[in-house]
Amino acid sequence: MDRPLVRITAYVAFGVATFLVALVLTFPDQRLKEIATVQLESQLGGKYNVEIEDLDLWWLSGVELENVTLSERVADTASDDDAQGGGPTDDANGGRPSGKSDDGGGPPNKQPMRITVPSIAAGFSPLASIANFAPTVDFLVDLGGGDISGNYVHGGDKREVNVDIDDIDLSKTKIIDSFLGVPVLGTLGGEINLELDPKRPLLTGGKITLTGRQLMVDEATIHTDQLGPMAFIDVPPTSFGSLDANLVINKPKGSPTPTVDFKRFEFHEGRDVRGQIWGDLELGRNMASSRAKLKMRFQFEDKYIRSNDLSSVLQMKWFREGKAKEWYGFVLWGRLAKPRFKGAPTAASGPQADAGNKGAKSAPKGKK
After folding, report:
1. Does residue 56 sit in the same domain as residue 167?
2. For the whole model, what pTM was predicted?
3. Looking at the keywords, is Membrane present (predicted)?
4. By CB neighbour count within 10 A (0-12 exposed, 13-18 middle, 19+ buried), where does 141 fall?
5. Same domain assignment for residues 168 and 268
6. Which of 11, 160, 186, 191 has the fewest CB atoms within 10 Å, i.e. the most exposed one?
7. Which domain range does residue 250 map to?
């Protein structure tokens, strides 16, 4: 007995299987890897070298980049060093700089930033596109200690980026360490929802919610160009406890730029340090041109001060000017490329007291 439905189904299944096999066997991964490398380096402004170990299909409609390494480009001074006697090298390290100071002692030389991301995947999502009535791309980033997932929606009246941070184990994720220059421990989770102009690379709204637990900075030596001869600072192990952050992004009517309002940014329950940051950040074309109007306060545990001999640090001008009771208050304002910073005892009282002072100043005076 002839069954057309069964025969047609078998033909379709065979055709799909043949197509998938051919797609996998003929997938131009090497060529796409070269294109992806060039595009990523271009998007990063030529400041980083990009290496991609492997590229493969991801859910048939996307691609996955494996072991993506970003390394900071630095001026090659090796020939100059050789002509002048050179700096210290390590034969066991292939003749590359050993990271030790030139005189054999003291803090190590500043090393170029290098970040490796285990996996970055992105692909077109047909079902989400139908649900959102707009083309939608899903993405997944494996950071080693956890995942960042989400989607990008390209709508007609606005674009959206939605990100879910899945309780990342920071001890297994080296990206933050590379950016901050110190090892960070604990877990970090949260959500990021951003709205963008449909035609221009401009934020028009959104919110950021972050939750950190058992946050701690491990012992490290960091390099800074801001303190002249004190080019290196020893950072002791420091417990910040929990982080709760709620930032709201909005674009006021008539304003050409959006503003990030720090509704809450608080480190609490820390064994060594507690702190709060509030105010707003007016975003510019880049972070350097953004303008800050932020206040902050920090409290240090007495045992932490004594065990790390921080009394002399807390006697510096900024700390002395900003101290009120057990807290140290500060204000930061101006362009982030060259911000201004000073101690502020009013900030040491916290955001609630600061809001109360503003209300008292703005209240109408009574009749005499």
Report:
1. no
2. 0.75
3. yes
4. buried
5. yes
6. 11
7. 160-349
In a domain, 233, yes or no: yes
354, part of any domain: no
What is the chain's pLDDT, residue by residue, as a tens digit (368 residues)? 456 655 555 545 555 555 445 545 455 567 777 777 888 778 777 788 888 888 888 887 788 888 888 888 876 554 444 444 444 444 444 444 444 455 555 555 556 778 888 999 999 999 999 998 999 999 999 998 899 999 999 988 889 999 999 999 999 887 877 777 788 999 999 999 999 988 888 889 999 999 999 999 988 776 655 444 545 667 889 999 999 999 999 988 878 889 999 999 999 999 999 999 999 999 988 888 999 999 999 999 999 988 888 877 788 888 889 999 899 999 999 999 899 999 999 999 998 876 666 554 544 554 44
Does 92 map to a domain? no
Contact 242, 267 (CB under 8 A): yes
Helix%, strand%, coil% for the chain, nearest 5: 25, 40, 30
Do 182 and 288 lie in a common domain? yes
Q: Domain count of the chain?
A: 2
